[in-house]
Amino acid sequence: MNTAKAARLLLDAGASITVTDQWHRGPLDVARENAENALVGVFASWLDTQSADLKKNVEEISAAFLKEKNNKVEPNQQSKVQLQKTFLQLGGLNLKANLKKVEVKEKTMFAKAEGKVTDKKPTGKDAKSTGKILSKLVDFPGDVKEITKHLSNAEVDPAGTDAFGLTALHKFASWNKTELVDMLLPKLTREQINFQDRDGKTALHWACEMASVAVVSQLAANNFVDASIKDGKGRTPLDIVNSGEGTVIERLRKALTRAA
């Protein structure tokens, strides 16, 4: 089981996201420090469903760490094994004994694409274009003011792909950022909204894989979104959701089928 999946399962089972290590880093800070983008996405998606007090607590931990970091030597990067141990220790839970198997996979939006590569051709400029591409200009978690500026710039292509074949919509959907999705959708055509990456996945596929419940509801209610599109493995977004089990999976299923 990969670290991102384990972290999501632990959080859903009641593990704490406010624990800190010897450098006063919380789980979210550790993920960012180690460029574990899948974990960052999982934590952000989970926090979007939590209370304002918990979100504030996590923000305070990150702010305190960054302040201390600016005054001290940065800690050495943890190895993947150390990082995994950090998250498996959240709340002191026994992963094998307490967690159910879930097939929905959380994948980094910046790692090289895996699996079958499809023959789909991009509708917007590709990553080799000399033009400015929104997907190449944004970073997690997405700055609203900065993205607003990019979207108002006629020279920025909102539908183009980055070096890994991902559009900005793919990323925003994965990050569960409904506000960013709302800003971007009016700039896209039906074809661009349903654009498939190298693995044949649309933004809706990505939202389902990353358990982005809010964005799944948002996209499912959009008349331009085609939920019947299959990825390179022959799966529709609903097929991805139905491959798992648990409370989060049920929420995804309801979000995806509510507008149907």
Salient structural properties:
single chain; repeat; two-stranded parallel ribbon; Ankyrin_rpt; about 260 residues; 2 strands; mainly alpha; Ankyrin_rpt-contain_sf; ANK repeat
Report on the architecture of this protein.
The chain is mainly α and 260 residues long. The protein folds into two domains: 3-98; 132-257, Alpha Horseshoe (Serine Threonine Protein Phosphatase 5, Tetratricopeptide repeat). It contains 15 helices and two strands. Helix 8 packs parallel to helix 10 and helix 12 runs antiparallel to helix 13 (213-220). The longest helix is centred in the N-terminal third of the chain and has 18 residues, at 52-69.
**Count of DSSP E strands?**
2
Helix content: 40-55%
CATH architecture of the largest domain: Alpha Horseshoe
Structural class from helices and strands? mainly alpha
Describe the oligomeric state of these chains in a short phrase.
single chain
CATH homologous superfamily label of the largest domain? Ankyrin repeat-containing domain
Instruction: Quickly count the helices.
Output: 15
Radius of gyration: 18 Å
